[in-house]
Task: structure prediction
Amino acid sequence: MKNLFKIAMLSTVALLSVGGVQAKEDVVWWDFLSGGDGVRMKALIEQFNTEHADTIEIQPTTLEWGTPFYTKVQTSAAIGEGPDVMTYHLSRVPLGVQSGALAEISTTDLAGVGLGPDTFAPANWEAGQSDGKQYAVPFDIHSIILYYNKDKLAEAGLLGADGLPTGLDGADNFTAALEKLKGGSEYALSLQTSGDGTPWRVFYSLFGQQDGVFLGDDGTFFPDESIPKAVKAVETMAGWVSGGYAPALTEYEGSVALFTSGAAAFHINGVWEVPTMTDLAAKGELGFEWGAIAIPTFFDHPATWADSHGFAIPNNVGKEMTPEKKAAVLEVISWMNKNSLAWASAGHIPAYTPTRESEAFKTMQPNATYSILADTAVFDPKSTLAGVASPVYDAVANYISPAMNGELEPQAAIEEMKADLQDQAD
Amino acid sequence: MIRDQRREWVAAYLLILPFVLIYGVLFLWPTVQMVYLSFTDAPLIGPGKWIGIENYVEMFDDRRFWTSVRNTGYFVALTVIPNTLIGLAIAMMVSRLKGWQQSVILAMFFLPYILPVSVVYRIWNWMFDLQFGIMQHPIALILGKPTPVFRTQWLFMPSVAFVTIWWTCGFNILLFLSGLRSISTDIYEAAALDNASRWTIFRRITWPLIWPVTALVLTIQLILQLKIFDQVYLFVQGGRPDPSMVMVQYIYSQAFQKNEGGYAAAISVALFVIVIVVSLLQFQFLRARGEK
Result:
């Protein structure tokens, strides 16, 4: 009996002391990073949790990219069941704010953890704002790049003295290069040619290289003088498919596989596939030497579509965030940015200026080869119809992809896309 | 014995109360709310401002709405009657088997029905895969070259209808089989004695006697297929969503993607009305046939 009492006392003391450690703050985290960059993000989160073993623990969940993620965020925030922090595309901030899914982040709070307009590129920082209020903090800048198979390019005589591809600028020169590569592989160029995603990114880059205006200040989609430019961009893309250089009706995964299996000499895709190539090459499974450069200049001047991953806090209705939780979330956002060099190994360009300007990043390959695109980036139009998983993305699947595959005439595709978006905007 | 009328009433009400409550709370109330919502500009979640019939005016002018109505109708036409007839045909064949053979064959036909739609999508996406799909062999024979059916506009709906019939036929077979079993063998024996041909037996005995089951299957199918969403949503991924948009999909896209709860409710009301009108018409038509 005495023993039993002792045990009871001891366990009470043990319980109490556990209660003392309970000051540790849990941060529920949602992201949509499931590819090669997802692996790197998990490593970052683990490192964070180790460094903050006594204070903060991130509890991460990865959801499906695109519409599923954003639908879930919106519905869960509306009933107060959203995460504490989440990754968010800056292109979607207007739509997120309009639908009430995002909570404002006070700039004083951010300044408290060393984040502010002076630690990011101005355009990047402002992309996280709506009506002058901050709703998201940038984390990276990501874009599309041109991956190439060094062996195949060497065979076709397309490598310059510096070992980088040469003679690709100008729409005609690029086609001539594709023609040279045609014999050496199944496809000269692989890229996603159905649905949204890559077709939008390539279209917006080619359109931007001609200074095309997607959404005019008066709310007109494709103002008159921009229509021929858009048509030209679509015609160029359709020419790759009709010329037999690129595969028709190919989905995202298939387009990556065509390149990694050596069936295609070029591949246009986001920087986030860099880890896929790096990992395959490290395991010796790639079977060729690869490289990546910025998208060539097809028209007047360099320009490449770009978007940013950022961090945002959902507007959890009916669930007030405690000051302790808020401090923990701010620490997460700040720590991630300050350690974003590791994220750069996922192919991205860090948004945090001190990291981006560090020597370590400037010598990181292949990022350094294409980091020029941070200066020539054209971000998605700022509209509640634009951004990832938005009506604009849907319109790309409905009009631009079919035009790439010859199911629609480029002129008709752009006119119908304009009418469709205008219809939804009014 | 004198029965207490009032006590009986009380008991009756008490007994149906739980059902009425659950039905009211889980079905009637949300339906009323949906109709109310359709007259507001509400977002996906939360209340909105009363805007009268504006959503309905917009709907009649919305070409995507009409596309979705047309596509839903097309899908119903492609599935309801074929699915019923194929179910009946297979049930008649299965009913000729006896004992364990019948059980095994029936189980084989029923198996697809228990699969979740995501699995059905996976299976058939592979079967129709342009590079590796086994279905590309017959497709190449018919169309002359391998064809990505879910990326070819005119083949999309027929292909989804085909997969849907494969998936849901098992349940119809089961219903028909129980119907066939309830037809007395005496009638068949009498017909055989009269030297009736197989076709005559089917025409004069099986078809009229199985009619109530056929009517039931047709009604269930009609209501089910009008609400088509999952298969179209899954198979269109990575393709062109608009030309093959069906009504429930349009409701989903308005509510969840565009945050237009009020407008989505208006389309839901339209679908609700269509389902009621079409099933009433069909019921009347089937009853008229049955009484003949």
User: Anything to note?
Assistant: The CA atoms of residues 113 and 250 of chain B lie 26 Å apart. The two ends of chain B are 47 Å apart (CA to CA).
